[in-house]
Write a structure and sequence with these properties.
Strands 3, 12, 13, 14, 15, 16, 17, 18 and 19 form a nine-stranded mixed β-sheet that branches. This protein has an eight-stranded parallel β-barrel with strand order 4-5-6-7-8-9-10-11. It contains 13 helices and 19 strands. The longest helix has 20 residues. By secondary structure, it is of the alpha/beta class. The chain is globular. The termini are far apart. Helix 3 packs parallel to helix 10 and helix 9 runs parallel beside helix 10. Bound molecules: pyridoxal-5'-phosphate and lysine. Lysine (LYS) binds next to helix 12. InterPro entries: Ala_racemase/Decarboxylase_C, DAP_deCOOHase_LysA, De-COase2_N, De-COase2_pyr-phos_BS, Orn/DAP/Arg_de-COase, PLP-binding_barrel. One of its GO terms (molecular function) is pyridoxal phosphate binding. Specifically catalyzes the decarboxylation of meso-diaminopimelate (meso-DAP) to L-lysine.
Length: 432
């Protein structure tokens, strides 16, 4: 995503000065915020289902399994929606494995990515009998072989290719350049297949690629898949059948008026075209695209503080609830819920955390706000609550899912006691 925090006015300033709807998925957001308090992460189940259905439609006729990237939003209800729709999961830790299984996602629909899988995590995934390990280093391949041998099982694995493609996204979420830590070069991968006999407890017959997140054009996907498909052909010609190709995730969403996203039909058409010669299974790992636009963060104005250049709009949400603006200078639309005052004002929109980086937007044109106003920060369904922390000893915010006029609390607001659970006052000492 282009750096967006220095808020140049969007093309359509009307949008910046309007109010957001007071109803979401048939639920009155004012009443919800009054009942559950703020900050509050809110997700529309209907919006998530609509995305799943659209992706399904685009994939019609393909032997494809969608493995939702759990890291985007890993609460039990969201994972449960994915499970209910027959999706699998892309996980990156034993914690995500546990969450996915508990939410009812069958192990045989789970793929495991990540450069730092520990032996214990590999053991847990082997014991669960997951679908596939997406391997990112020779050391990991060797570890997997040893751990599978110890259990007398055959692990299914893919090699994650680093195609050295520029995903044209923010540097911090780009994963497919040679200098990034992810995947291995084609040369390295070639060596693995040549030495496949050395790893008798690993069935290495898959290719995986994931070049980054919030990708807004189809060309980087095409480039990456061309490399993957050429490699598939080479391997198959050399006697190494490839049973599955995992194209990762990365499809971007609209955070801001004017963002040009790739239509899911075009994305899938590019995959179909690039992998037309592949007659095995297709795996996809979308995260953000399935959930981002289904979520909003409700927050109240604590106060309006005069500033040297413009007023600060101080919210009760902070960078610990939504880290994206401070981490990536990411733009999120902000709007009053339901009704807006007629006059507008430019604000620096900030949270209460003791860092200047705790800023949601700079120089943002908004309807004039007053203490107690309910605002909505939009497009927070992905990488919002799942990246939250308790920094500044701010308990984790509640999360609620809406569905056709009803709501269910997925996580109640963390209590102070829960926030410090597991901490001790160092009152019990052991001899080292
Ligand atoms: C291996 C892998 N797969 C899938 C995803 C999901 O990405 P996105 O949320 O952009 O679809 C990620 C995160 O970028 C990832 O690292
Ligand atoms: N956390 C990032 C996305 C990371 C993708 C993980 N592979 C974001 O909010 O944009």
């Amino acid at each position: 995503m282009p750096p967006a925090a220095a808020d140049t006015p969007p093309a359509n300033e009307e949008q910046a000065t309007g109010a957001a709807p007071a109803m979401l998925d048939g639920v009155d957001l004012h009443a919800l915020a009054a009942r559950l308090g703020t900050p509050l992460h809110v997700y529309s189940a209907g919006a998530i289902r609509a995305r799943i259905a659209a992706l399904r439609e685009a994939l019609a006729g393909l032997d494809a399994l969608v493995c939702y990237a759990a890291k985007a939003n890993s609460n039990r209800a969201v994972l449960g929606l994915m499970a209910g729709a027959g999706l699998g999961a892309d996980i990156v830790s034993a914690g995500e494995l546990w969450r996915a299984l508990r939410a009812g996602i069958p192990a045989r629909r789970i793929v495991f990515s990540g450069v730092g899988k520990t032996a214990a995590e590999i053991d847990a995934a082997l014991d669960a009998d997951i679908l596939r390990f997406n391997l990112e280093s020779r050391d990991e391949l060797e570890t997997l072989d040893r751990r599978a041998a110890a259990r007398g099982v055959l692990a299914r694995a893919a090699v994650r290719i680093n195609p050295d493609v520029d995903a044209l996204t923010h540097a911090k979420i780009s994963t497919g350049r040679a200098e990034n830590k992810f995947g291995v070069s084609l040369d390295e991968a070639r060596g693995w297949f040549a030495a496949a006999g050395t790893y008798p407890h690993v069935r290495l017959d898959g290719l995986h690629v994931h070049i980054g997140s919030q990708i807004l054009s189809v060309e980087p996907f095409r480039q990456a898949l061309r490399h993957v498909d050429a490699f598939r052909r080479e391997l198959e010609a050399g006697g190494h059948p490839i049973r599955s190709i995992d194209v990762g995730g990365g499809l971007g969403v609209r955070y801001r008026a004017g963002d040009r996203t790739v239509a899911v039909a075009d994305y899938v058409a590019a995959i179909r075209e690039a992998l037309a010669g592949h007659d095995g299974r297709l795996l996809l790992e979308p995260g953000r695209w399935l959930v981002a636009e289904a979520g909003v963060l409700l927050t109240r104005v604590v106060r309006v503080k005069p500033g040297a250049t413009r007023p600060f709009l101080v919210l009760d949400a902070a960078m610990n609830d939504l880290a994206r603006p401070s981490l990536y200078d990411a733009w999120h639309d902000i709007a009053p819920v339901g009704a807006a005052r007629a006059d507008a004002e430019r604000y620096d929109v900030v949270g209460p955390v003791c860092e200047t980086g705790d800023t949601f937007a700079r120089d943002r044109l908004l309807p004039r706000c007053a203490p107690g106003d309910l605002l909505m920060i939009r497009t927070t369904g992905a990488y919002g609550a799942s990246m939250a922390s308790t920094y500044n000893s701010r308990p984790l915010a509640a999360e609620v899912v809406l569905d056709g006029g009803r709501y269910a609390v997925v996580r109640r607001r963390q209590s102070f006691e829960e926030m410090v659970a597991g901490e001790t006052a160092a009152d019990h000492w052991e001899n080292a």
